[in-house]
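## Example record

The block below lists the input lines for one assembly entry, exactly as stored, with component labels intact.
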Amino acid sequence: MDFRLTPEQEALKSAFEEFFKEEEKRAPEGWSGGMFSIFESEENWAYHRSVAEKLAKKGWLCLPWPKKYGGQEHSYIEQLIFNEVRAYYRVPGVDMWGSQIVAPSILECASEELKQEWLPRIARAEINWCQGWSEPNAGSDLASLTTRAVEDGDDFVINGQKIWTTGAHRADHIFFLARTDPTVPKHKGITYFVSEIREGITIRPLLFMHSKHEYNEVFFDDFRISKKNVVGQVNQGWYVTMAGINFERSMIGSVAEVKRDLEEFIEFCKETKRNGQPLAKDPLTRHKLAEFALELEVARQWAYYVAWLQSKGNLVPAESSAAKYFSSELTVRFANTMVEIMGLYGTLKAGSKWAKFHGKYEDMCQASLGTTIAGGTTETMKNIIAWMGLKLPR
Amino acid sequence: MNLDFTEEQEALKKTARDFMTKTWSSALVRELEEHPTGLKEDIWRQIAELGWLAVAIPEEYDGVGGRFMDLIVLFEEMGRACFIAPFFSTVICTLAIVAAGSEEQKKEILPRVANGEMVLSLALAEPSARYDAAGIATRAAANKDEYVINGTKLFIHDAQVAHCFLCVARTRTEGPPEDGITLFLVDAKSPGVKITPLHTIADDKQNEVIFENVKVAKGQVLGPIEKGFPVIEMLLEQAAIAKCAEMVGGADWVIENCTSYAKERAQYGKPIGSYGIIQHYLAEMWTEIGIAKRFTYYAAWLLDQGIPCRKEVAMAKAWASEVYKRWTRMGVQVFGGIGTTREHDMGLYYRRARQAALLFGDPDSLREKIAQEIIL
Ligand SMILES: Cc1cc2nc3c(=O)[nH]c(=O)nc-3n(C[C@H](O)[C@H](O)[C@H](O)COP(=O)(O)OP(=O)(O)OC[C@H]3O[C@@H](n4cnc5c(N)ncnc54)[C@H](O)[C@@H]3O)c2cc1C
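Predicted structure tokens for the full assembly:
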């Protein structure tokens, strides 16, 4: 075993660090990272877009892709390093839905024509995606979705409703699943589409618990889409989504971001006095901080292991599910504990002169709740570990 | 032994439940969360008419002469409904006036509280953000027949609508911190009082209240001069248990609504409540909330009887806070995506739990209190 990076990887890491350290300085007032915050305001979105364009120029939005589509054919480890550094500096710029979810599906399953049409534009950060999968009655059981796609000449006509569509109000494109054959078992009648957002698609905002606008409802009303926009084969959409989960799934980003938050919080504890002594000297506070430092360190090593397994070509359903639920639950616990340590100051919203960290933890102890639900709930992750990892009966 | 509420208390509970179902609504909660004062005059008038503001007030001052346990019934129903009004603040201050006020003060204030004319607010916490005597830095200096108050109060509920503050200030700086605390009844309109709203996770109308050379007549001192802290200690215990009642009331909503959602919501062709993991969440939720409720009643009874219960109060508040935080968090998880929205009621409870846990003693400082009681 050797836990060191190669000299090339070290060099790449330094380049990432240099870049993101600079970009961090351009963050708008009150910015404090988080996965969904880019959608919340014009300033945050502009920040995201400006970084995305720079990343595109460097070719860093498609590190693992084949050269032929503009990629650099890097392994999961390089992708992991990129994700870790970016998250540590809490800099946006990556369209997770584009480069992490739809691109792998296109790479794996789409026709050459579609690849040529979409991949370069994703690499150049020209388009902004949203993911129209979940529906009001198809959440964990996604395959039971009922949005209909009916064939009509060279087109499909789409009718139905999506929900929780993150960033749809900022996006110009959507990839979505619709039922093309209602007569066959549920996994076998779904088709995967990519489309620009235009007439026939209505986006209605839904506010998150903390009143911010991140996700939406999306309605399709007789929306016409060409058959050319099908990724993979008609009725094979479920398998296309499965192929698409083959991105770097270690969750290193959420670990790295919380690690940074913790470091910042430790500085706060050194400066802040409670009962006449710095918080950092209070044994209970020290214990809590140490516990998070420990959990983050072990989660980081687990993430490296997951990426390592992926880099060797393994599918890692149990390992990545473990990473997903462990890191997201850790984030919720972390945000709540920081509120607890700050005491009455912890629940103040941004805007008051008394609020610390621009009200970050008041916000984060709500926002983080989304992370244990989105992209597969903690319970679903545990089911996957039990069934696929431990081969327990279903 | 009798672990049931009295018939009168059951009737009060029913009235309160009916009121919350008929007159109150979560739409109103949302409206008042955004509202600058959080006070709806017609609702306030109605609860005055129902006599709720008079529960803690003796009959000779137009009150109904109720017991602390009667208030618990109300706080529980209010917590369940996420009721927003300066009720908690007013009642807590009322308890102090009943316990420590002069005959004149009682006559002047209590009848006006009972009929809904007067709103009170407890100006206790400060930037030190702690609930002990050492945390009080606000000074009140004697000057002929008045006192002059200077200091910053922080996290002050309902200051924006209060007519009168119960202000906790230091009249002597030397000696142990507990000695030298005096309580004042301060007219909210006094020159030098400056109120700035604070916005919190629970939208619960907290404020910064600055007292700058605020003059208060000597007759406005509540209770003994320089020996006011025991009154505050009593008040903090009552407030902590009142918060517990609110929390277990809210927790009741959580268990009921999570359970019924788990029965209705189907994924993979079966109600989510048929899956083991959800069943175990709900089973634990039911257990821990049930325990919190019974222990809250126990601590409330001890207070009601005047039995010393420092340890039990700390235990009740620490436990109810942890339980409420834990199960509102898991409640959101049971609801899935819909539970994370602003429009769903689950979030109202999640947000309140984070706030309530910190008020009148947070779980960590309460554990320290318990430790002090058990490790002699
Ligand atoms: C912040 C956020 C952003 C999102 N962004 C997007 C997006 O951009 N695009 C998109 O398509 N979707 C998105 N989603 C949707 C997300 O994928 C779903 O919310 C998720 O799959 C859960 O579905 P649900 O909300 O319907 O909950 P449900 O599936 O109804 O689950 C409710 C509860 O039941 C549990 N449960 C369900 N089935 C089982 C089982 N078999 N065993 C044990 N427990 C079970 C769940 O774990 C959960 O606790 C987002 C969600 C959130 C919260």
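Residues 259 and 296 of chain A are 7 Å apart (CA to CA). The mean pLDDT of chain A is 96.
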